Amino acid sequence: MISLLAAAHAMPNPWMVLPFVVLLLCIALMPLFASHFWEHHYPKVAIGLGWITACYYIFGLGETTPLVHAAEEYISFMALVGSLYVISGGIKIRVKGEATPWVNVAFLATGAVLANIIGTTGASMLLIRPWIRMNKYRITGLHIVFFIFIVSNCGGCLTPIGDPPLFIGFLRGVPFWWVLEHCWPAWLLTVSLLLAVFLVLDWRNFMRAPKPVRDKETAHETWMFRGLPNLVFLAVVLGAVFIDPKHKVGVVTVSAMLMIAAAAVSYFTTKKDVHEANDFNFHPVQEVGYLFIGIFLTMLPALAILQSGTVISLNSPLQYYFATGALSAFLDNAPTYLAFLAAEMGSYHLDVGNPADVMKFVIEHPHFLGAVSLGAVFFGAGSYIGNGPNFMVKAIAEKSKVHTPGFIGYIVRYSLPILVPILALVGWIMVHGGH
Q1: Contact 427, 435 (CB under 8 A)
Q2: In total, how many domains does the chain have?
């Protein structure tokens, strides 16, 4: 989401990547070794580290443009995530009874499709609460992680609405339906493999549950919806995404203003009992807001160095797929996508800022574009900070008293042994095989 072309005016000292590394380590380790301190002081840590980077740009490089763009993008990011969180908090989806493994698979598959219509953030915020309720008698970190894998990330690679990296490509000139036409086989294979693995693991979880619980879970599922007028506000937010970001007042875009206004009206018109039924409060979005202001600032030097091309020397689509993916798991996957797309196009003497050059690249080098698109979207599931909704889903789950793996546990127990092998196989078949 950060405009790298504007953020790379001055090359920062490589040592200035350290605040970003420190912030990542804090997010990963503090909950394990200093949970009480972290719970009360994480806003100070995130903002403090971001302030170090901001001071370096202002006083060390004499550059304020990257910070202005970071502010614009952060406000837009929080307007989107926050508005979707507030609006979805006014929609109650209830399932009577509990979900069997097959019902869970059908629910996640539906979420993977819906992610392309209302975005991974919209689908995540709308579906995470009913997902938790469906599995309330036996829910574990497994259910939260696979929800993040499928609904919050991999499901959204078929349209520019689906995931921020693809929307960045659309704004740069990639045709709207290009990803659907070229990426659907990889989407289908990835989602199918993740669902298959989830079915096996969830079946084991299901069979360990006491028989009375299993019998209850086979009860007929009856859906109930409340707060449906909020779907109108959801449509307003999704429509606002397409407003040209050049239309703004100061660092706040017209798009962000509309999103904030829709969220405010939604919040004040939603019945109190609906919010209470959803156990709605602002803590999850506050946590994301504090952590990501630190992330948006501290990652500026890393992205500027990445964009410079001094650390990118790749030749094949498969190399771009894995390189984009590896960084998308820990950097915001939207600017990572843009950095590698710029590097790819630069190797052919094309300018990512020129729509005509982008179209030429789309036509002549579709495999390279597909590799970066899939790498950014799929590997955004690699950690809690790879994509915006990941941390939000974790926060909502924890507020609902669901045990979720920590930052390291997520990577060691789920990303490395499950997600990475599946994505490596998909890359070998769809990216390497398609070249």
Answers
A1: no
A2: 1
Residue-wise pLDDT for 272-283, tens only, equals: 988 888 888 888
What does R_g of the chain's alpha carbons equal in angstroms? 21
Tens of pLDDT along 148-198? 999 999 999 999 888 888 988 887 789 989 999 999 999 999 999 999 999
Classify residue 55: in a domain, yes or no: yes
Note if the pTM is more than 0.70. yes
Q: Which residues of 203-235 are buried (b: 16+ CB within 10 A; e: fewer)?
A: eebbeeeeeeebeebeeebeeeebbeebeebbe
* Structure token pair of residue 403: 């045990």
The confidence score (pLDDT) of residue 9 equals 54
* Residue 9 counted as domain residue: no
Q: Is the dihedral of CA 411, 412, 413, 416 positive or negative?
A: positive
- Structure token pair of residue 156: 């959204």
Q: How far apart are the first and last CA of the chain?
A: 28
34: containing domain: 15-432
According to the 3-state scheme, what is the secondary structure of the chain?
CCCHHHHCCCCCCHHHHHHHHHHHHHHHHHHHHCHHHHHHHHHHHHHHHHHHHHHHHHHHCCCCHHHHHHHHHHHHHHHHHHHHHHHHCCCEEEEECCCCHHHHHHHHHHHHHHHHHHHHHHHHHHHHHHHHHHCCCCCCHHHHHHHHHHCCCHHHCCCCCCCHHHHHHHHHCCCCCHHHHHHHHHHHHHHHHHHHHHHHHHHHHHHHCCHHHHHHHCCCCEEEEECCCHHHHHHHHHHHCCCCCCCEECCEEHHHHHHHHHHHHHHHHCCHHHHHHCCCCCHHHHHHHHHHHHHHHHCHHHHHHHHCCCCCCCCCHHHHHHHHHHHHCCCCHHHHHHHHHHHHHHCCCCCCCCHHHHHHHHHHCHHHHHHHHHHHHHHHHHCCCCCHHHHHHHHHHHHCCCCCCCHHHHHHHHHHHHHHHHHHHHHHHHHHCCC
State mean pLDDT over 327-338: 82
Residue 408 lies in a domain: yes
Residue 2 lies inside a defined structural domain of this protein: no
